[in-house]
Amino acid sequence: MDLRSERMLSTMRTTQQNISVLLNESRTKTEALCILLASVNPSNGRATVLSCDVNHLSLEAESVVFPSHVLLMLPLTPLSAPIPCKDFIFPPSLEHYADSYVVVATVRDMQNEVMGVVLTFVRHSVLSPLQHTLIDITRQKVELSYQYELARHPYSDKLSEQLALLEEVSSISKVGAWEIDRFTGVLSLTEVMKALLGLPRVKSVGLNEVLDMLTSSDRRDLKQRVFKALKEDREFVKHFEFHDKQGRRKSIKLTVFLQVQRGNASGIKLTRLYGAVQDETEIQRLSDSQHNYTDYLTSLLNNVDSVVLSIDEHGTILTANERVYSVLGFEPEELIGQDIKLISTKVQNTDAPSCFINIPAGLAWCSENGSVNECLRHKNGKRIACEVNLSKCSVHNQQLIIASVRDITNQNHEIEHYKQLALTDTVTGLPNLHQFERYLGDKAHDDKSSKPFATFMRVAICNIKEYENAFGEPTIDYILRILASRFIRIFEINKRNSASIFKCERGAFYIHLHQYFSEEAQSLNAAHDCAILIHDHVLAPITLHNSLLNIETQTISCTVPTKHFSFKKMAMFC
What is the Rg, in whole angstroms, of the alpha carbon atoms belonging to the chain? Predict the structure, then answer.
């Protein structure tokens, strides 16, 4: 068993039975197959089982090996999506769960470091909202119990040996510890801490002597952070630089914990401050260039016009850039650890499933076609039209899928707008000649074998050029709009006289009666009735400049077999 497991096991020993009861209760409520509490060592991925539900007590002290992609995810999210059990290496007694899924919940210590995990085995790859909530509550209860026991852990008989070991480890890691008694004002420092301050041979150090090494702005900031921590978490971390007693510039990480006493009338009273100081000077010096390069790449990634997601082969989101918020409404942290199905719906304008549902098929499609248009789910529930491209890459021998997602909603609106302009007459708003040609092509494919005849009419203003010369172009546009509105009112709004109206040449309208006929005579009768309707209601006099104007028009009707539907043949008949 590694040192991390020893530390966690020794802390949890006094509450081992309570933890087991808690896990068993959670297993019942979440309908889980099995629940385990295990320590975990992120460096090698090996975890040791510390506690189990009552049905799996034989698993205590057994080992579990985590896959690399789960280790990468542990510090990023407190609760993962269900992960296939076959990705892990479990003890033989858990092999019958190979076809199930496991949810990984992280347990942190008081320094917010991941110390353990709660493994919940479930049957399905998707959690219900209730299961998700109950598993997270269990994680929080275990974490609180662990931190409580860690705070009150009794001193062992080998305290001096442990302190010596602590000093040795502190020296290697360059981490010093300190403590201030609030009532006496005494400052206690470890030897490593004294060395960090440049005072290795001094037996005692005063608090004011240490504070004098800091700048006035750092002292003010520390004071404000202490007051803020009293009201909130009672702990904080600060990174800053200072000059030690030898004049050397150092970069340090200061961790501060506050211990308080609650009185009956006086409220909260600060009794003790303690914490650690880590020397990050060498680390900072060696990693500055790397950090700058990483920040540079991150900044570039966050400023591209596309969402960039990295996904493992099982569909779990591992990383997301900040663009995801403006496109889909999710913060990156909300998607990390979740299944990609959370944002998947379907391929745009089809009933085909999203390429994220079947990732291998999506990769093959994008490899051949470049991209696919999908409707992705926004956080508010809406569907967003997006262009999705999938590609493979390998990072540290782990196969990942990179998904780039670009919002094409505005592009689709522009296409629809230009399409509308191309197919609509700008004066009357009626479908134009291009739309009429498309309309005839569509109707030609309809099966009208039982009633093969259709009726078309052409109504054109006679001598429109003379009208235009006499009244001007704006007046002619006004007349055409009035005629168009009358056509719409008579044929499109009135369902008894159903027909489609098109504005083609400058002063000509085409009408297609929606009714089909089995005999040509029936079609001619319908055209005659329609001509009377047009004469009475559409071609009535128009009020122009306070006088009535009779518009002289030419009306032509024709009966056309459906097999001859085309604009060229229509022009021949009409």
Answer: 39
